[in-house]
Amino acid sequence: MPDPNEPNERIIAAVPRITIQAFCETAETAALIETTVGDRRMQKAHVRVQMGGGAAAVEAFRQAPTPNVIVIEIQGPKSRPLECLDALAEVCDPGTKVIIIGHVNDVLLYRQFLQRGVSEYLMAPVEPLGLISAVSDLFSAPGAKPVGRTIAVFGARGGAGSSTVAHNLAWTIAREHGTATVIADLSIAFGTASLNFNQDPPQGIAEAVFAPERLDANLLDRLLSKCSDNLSLLSAPATLDRTVDLSEASFDALLDLLRAAVPCIVLDVPQGWSAWTRRMLIAADEILIVSQPDLASLRNTKNLLAVLAQSRPNDARAKVVLNSVGVPKRPEIAAAEFAKALDLTLSAVLPFDPALFGTAANNGQMIAEVQANAKPAEIFGSLAAAVTGRAELRRNRPNMLEPLLAKLSRRKAS
């Protein structure tokens, strides 16, 4: 299991809508597979777990069609693995894939498994992500492009500034890391991304959500408006000509297309708690909760962290950004106390700077465009490095002024 404080190095693609049947010999392996069923990457898969190992698998499929994937646990020679596989081959439907979970590290046996068409051999005990990765890889085409990373930004309460954080984060990832990025404004009725990026696209996310049967790669390309070389915007119409009553899976097809098209997608998720927002957060590769230093924000952030940790047991905890810190004459919870109450390290603390943020908003610019050397611009840079897993790369980036600064320091010392 990954360190909960570290981001996953590898992005595992979601398992498609398939059927999986597992035949276990130990209660521990059965419990492990049951645990994987709740992982966000397994939402579409239908999984059934039973005991009996290879013999039970052969018996189960004598009169029944086989699923897309069969997982068989084999403890050792007493399980007669090769005989079971030979018998299973006689009743297995073409295209069914077999994964073996074994307890013996035997190269010869592994080769015999491969000769019989076994797709993957995993050594017990298997971690949940290891099994999910093995299943996912079975349905990833060779040479396929890496799946895009989704970063969901969500406000702990209304007015926390999550949209401002999402937009500046996406701009910084695209600008500083040269990564093709899409910022998707999911607030269909009240979205502000088009204003913040000074764009007025004729089409946007509503066309993708309200007519999903028309959505394909070509339509998606037309819906995206270009903000810069590496940044594209999927804007919200921000009109009230219809109510927005979305189903839980309203954005699924759109996200699948985005993940196949670009390496980074920043989701500006509107504040509120519905089936689709919950699904959006749980399914994201990285989550940023934007909060403010007050009691309501602290309570809401704590509740969000708890439900997300429960729903994402194999993922790192959500990151928390404390925004608008230092409002004059406003009683605030100190950042250190806020972090202590949540039992985590805050990923960023953004100072209250109404002149800078107000100017950026009114001009349709990002913070670094208004004042490149401003403290918030530096914070967004560090945050972008953290969510993309490039913190080391950022720290080790050479500073072109270092030789000159060093020379000046030596002169002062002499």
Structure overview:
There is one protein chain. With 414 residues, the chain is an alpha/beta fold. The protein has helices spanning 27-37, 53-60, 81-91, 107-115, 128-138, 162-176, 193-196, 205-210, 217-223, 252-261, 275-283, 295-311, 335-342, 354-363, 367-370, 375-387, 391-395, 402-413, and strands at residues 19-24, 46-51, 69-74, 97-102, 120-123, 149-155, 181-185, 225-226, 231-234, 264-269, 286-291, 319-325, 348-351. Strands 8-9-7-10-6-11-12-13 form an 8-stranded mixed β-sheet, sandwiched between helices. Strands 2-1-3-4-5 form a 5-stranded parallel β-sheet, sandwiched between helices. Helix 2 packs parallel to helix 3 (81-91) and helix 6 (162-176) crosses helix 16 (375-387). The chain starts with 18 loop residues before the first strand and ends with a helix.
Gist of the model:
The protein has 18 helices and 13 strands.
User: For the largest beta sheet, what order do the strands appear in spatially?
Assistant: 8-9-7-10-6-11-12-13
Regions with little confidence, pLDDT below 50 for 5+ residues:
1-8, 392-414
Gap between N and C termini, in Å? 54 Å
Q: Please estimate the helix content.
A: 40-55%
Strand content: 15-25%
Could you describe the largest sheet, including whether it forms a barrel?
8 strands, mixed
Number of helices: 18
